[in-house]
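Subject: complex prediction, re-run

Hi both,

The earlier run crashed halfway through, so I resubmitted it with identical inputs.
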Amino acid sequence: MIITLIDIILLTFMGATAIAILRLRSLFAVVMLSGIYSLLAASMFVALDAVDVAFTEAAVGAGISTVLMMATLALTGERERPAAHTTWLPLAVVTVTGAALLYATFDMPPFGAADAPVNLHVAPRYLNDSFGEVGLPNVVTSVLASYRGYDTLGEVTVIFTAAVAVMILLGGRKGDDAGIKNEPPKEKLADNDGDGDTA
Amino acid sequence: MLQEILDHYNYWIAIMLMMVGFYTVVARGNLVKKIVGLNIFQTSVFLLYISMGKVTGGTAPILDERFTVYSNPIPHVLILTAIVVGVATTALGLALVVRIKESYGTIEEDELDLMDGET
Amino acid sequence: MKHHRVLRIVSKLLIPFIMLFALYVQFHGDFGPGGGFQAGVILASAFILYGLIFGLENARKVAPPAVVTRLVAAGVLIYAATGYAGLLKGGNFLDYGVLGATPVAGQHLGILIIEFGVGTTVAASMITIFFLFAGRER
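This time it finished cleanly. Structure:
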């Protein structure tokens, strides 16, 4: 009963924070609230027994994301302008989508049911056999690193790719590409700034 | 009736959060706000997944002799990696925002549309 | 933020413990909550804190961007190499069972190595991304 109460309180806080994020115009406040939102989500994950996920969400969502967004705000400005166009069309789209999804939830198994299809497929095998096969008490690590190691290799590659993409976007000096556009083609090939490239 | 609400409360809040995030992405013109909206949307999906894996009376899936009922570890594995990939893609989106600001001088969607129309 | 003495001293005290905690999370992930993803982010946050308090220039001296950039790729390579080591030993790709004397010992070793690879890539990526954002002039 206490757990249910904690669930409901945390979820309500998350909803309130999300709506505050939607309504506020000061982007600084929005970024701070998104950090709080992540922390609430992390607490929620602990209540739902997903300790590994909660750990990650607390470190990533409340830590790194907030820092990156603050760095972006320092470069782009902190105020959001009020929207000039009408908002009834997005509101209608969102309402219809939300209603359809809500209707779908009535087909889902009740929250916490041990006999829900998702809990009957491979999960019992992992829980029963992983200790004998992999020898680790933490089933999440066994599945992540061993049973689904191929998936995780893919995820690590995605992070690698994202880092490379950010390097491409922000690695050069400011105004490098603008220089290319304005210079005549002959000078484009000369290494003017001495940094090893031809920009 | 109360049981019905308790059975689906997590899913409903997840969908509500998803729609708030969706609305932020569609209706707000500021690009940073859109990325925050995407993050809310993303977290709501995480919440939906983790809610489905919860087993009443279960504990975290770290094996110990004292427990017999564990929550489902598979959603945890999927979401754990999704969170870190999520921050990597958020960083990519923010990098694009920074570049747009440098090239156009604004990150408001309607002003960007206006400038693209002129040239 | 160089003139905030309280921030400077407190972060100086905290940073070693953050790094130690990252190592704990990295290598205790087999037994409790944790693993490469979380450890990488925590280790990166120690460098980010250092960069925020003591300035980007000093942070770049501690973690030279040239080295960090290579570590981003090194983590993925460590992971993939572990997979190929399984192939060379006669197993399947990413089958750690053949790496040790017994299948369980092999699994232990394989998971330790790939979690290290994951941690390296995640930490290096986050540090790189932070350096790039913070180093961008207005």
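The first helix of chain A runs from residue 2 to 23.

- K.
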